[in-house]
Amino acid sequence: MVLTDASMLITEACVKAGADAFIGYPITPSNKFYNYGSKRFPLFLAGPDEITVLQWMTGLSAAGKFPVTATAFPGLALMAETFNMAYMMELPMLLIITQRLGPSTGSATTGAQGDLSFINGLISGGYPVPVLCPSNFEDAWKLTEESIKTAINLRTPVILLTSKEMVMTQKSFDISILPEINKINREQEPIDLPYKTYKSGNNFVPPFVPVGNHEHLIRLNSSTHDDEGMIQKNSPNAIANTIRLKEKMEKRLDEYTFFDYDKQDDSKNLIVTYGISAGAARNAVEELRKNNKKISLLVVKTLLPVSEKITSIIDSYQNVTFVEENIGGQYKEIIYGKVYRSNIKQVNKIGFMISPSDIIKELSL
Amino acid sequence: MKSPVLTDKKMPFCPGCGHGIIVNSISKSFIELGYNPLDIIIVSDIGCSGLVDPLFATHTVHGLHGRAPALGLGVAMGLADRSKKVIVIQGDGGATIGLQHLLEAARRNIDITLLVFNNLLYGMTGGQISGLSTDKFKELRQVEEGVPPFDIIKLAHQAGAMSSARVISPANFTESIKFAVETPGFALLELASICPSYGLQKIKELDEFSQEADALLNNRKVNEVVYRETSSLLNDVEIISKKFNTSIDERYRILLAGSAGGGIQLAAELLAKAGISAGLHSTMKGEYPVTVGTGFSIAEVILSRKPIYYTGLDTPDVIFIMTEDGLEKVKSFMNADTLIIADDLLSLSEANNISSKPFSKKVGKRSAILNAISSWISDTNVIPKEALIDAIKPHKHAELLIKAIETEV
Q1: Does the beta-carbon distance from A169 to B311 stay under 8 Å?
Q2: ipTM surpassing 0.90, yes or no?
Q3: Could you tell me the pTM of the whole model?
Q4: Is the pLDDT assigned to residue A325 strictly greater than 70?
Q5: Quick check: B319 and B339 in contact, CB under 8 A?
Q6: Is the N end or the C end of chain B the one with fewer CB atoms within 10 Å?
Q7: What CATH number is attached to the domain comprising A283?
Q8: Is the Cα torsion angle A210, A211, A216, A222 positive or negative in sign?
Q9: Considering Cα of B53, then B59, then B62, then B66, what sign does the dihedral take?
């Protein structure tokens, strides 16, 4: 056993999976990543601001390296435009977002789950970003590897959404149970000639070739572009290429959909939760079952895009309770919008973690 | 002759635009320097200067307004190969909004070349003035008079650019570009341009470019990017094996409260580790002001037989209070059932479950909390005292800490 934190496990998993560089700008509660990252990554760079951080990362990624950063909402807000650029250029990278209490600078050392709505609308035009969310230390390890794999396989920035309590709390943990993580293979299938930077085959993702290579001319472009990477206003080729950005995320969603479904037969009630609130939900379910109450639990780990696998589980229950540490129920709203449904309950809280008793009380089974 | 570094695409600029002259000078420079076009990466910004990508038969990366120097720096740091030439192109508007990136690139002195096409205005949005619009240009148009332009050549020089130069006469463009590209570190070149649509109509109007040509050099080492070998973080983590037994039935939720410098966080960590060596699951988290050297210091520890999913404390079973700062923070957790172990310097109202002892008087402020924990362990036998001693042993001040807990209070 060791006493450790998820920041360390995530950092270590990044490098094991083949991440090359950590580009940091200090911000609480992502500061442990910065410290671990400066020791562990093959390259560590201290950016002068978050915009620069993400620009450097995009450049590194264009050159074939895999960059990682960790920030919180204020940093992510500054990165929003560059995030769109990296998304449009289709360059793989990982952003670890540690949620803290908002709005604005809020409370830097208080946990929260308040940034999902922002991330859901991060890409202008409403394009999906893969968002993976660990619910415990094992997830922190495995989902980091899956995030990097997804970023590489789909050629996209990926967000690993954590929170203060998830990555700063020290816990006893048996590291010997962690599965080995191997460097993710970036070798390409043979490329159909003539190579075009954004020409994809059936899998919706163009093969990645770094700038500076001697075989293929690369044209990366942040503006609307055709499959060659040439800037275009709205030519059919460019619009098709833009639509493909959504398609690749959604048509290959099964490759990166993760969740824990703890189903109890005959239960009409389901708790849906994610991230730090999953701990309280697991305890609540244990307690309820001890008292012979029927309850199922769905811990969602791929928050975005929303998979049909997840919605179909939710749909199969008569009563569903969403548990998330924010003011209005952001994941619930992504699933159901603003429409009121009498069979949907929610447990929300700000400034404090949701406790097992908060959940049990709301369920009143 | 067709240039090997240019495509056959037509120039996208307005007739008479100065940018065409610069593009041709860049092409000429590359040919004269003999580069393979696929060793060149052109990184462009937003604005009229950002329309250059399709013209070049090199790798091209078209980024955001003002950010191209940072993007280009990232490309160079990713390639980490000085045989590849990263050429960043931006306009005066881009240099204004992204001044931080320009200065950062100069400071780092990585081998990239930044060419600023300065036509004194934002052409793409209708001719608005920029931070590089010159005094005379603004006087004639009666805008922002008296607000001087940035002198990016001097700024970049001050920030550490290996070379930085302003070139007004197109006749000198090719040689200047060659020099900048061949500069082994960061090179900035501001090139005067004209904008027939909104600004200077002709080359001969370049006298409105009221900043002087300039060329500054810094003699300094080029920054090389190195990808190093590192070893696993898990190698450095202390492995704690179960050596002791415990009498805990279910779990203990423990709150430690004191002041910065009072060893609260260390004590919590040691207690959590001691719990692990007694075969328990444990969690530990700290809370303190952002100014870590002053004010309160709080830590929460959970010791549990079962795995801990929810790491919140809700109602602590025991609260240790060592100072007034700490007391202030944990008051709301104190109720009739909670065991309170406090330093006797604190004036706590009489409650049924308070144990007040002179911890700090006996062992000093820094060790008071460990002594208090130790005495609680001895009284309750929650975990063996040996487990705590065992947790302390790897610490660099182990001897001192063990002495502190062995002192009878």
Answers
A1: yes
A2: yes
A3: 0.97
A4: yes
A5: yes
A6: N
A7: 3.40.50.920
A8: positive
A9: negative
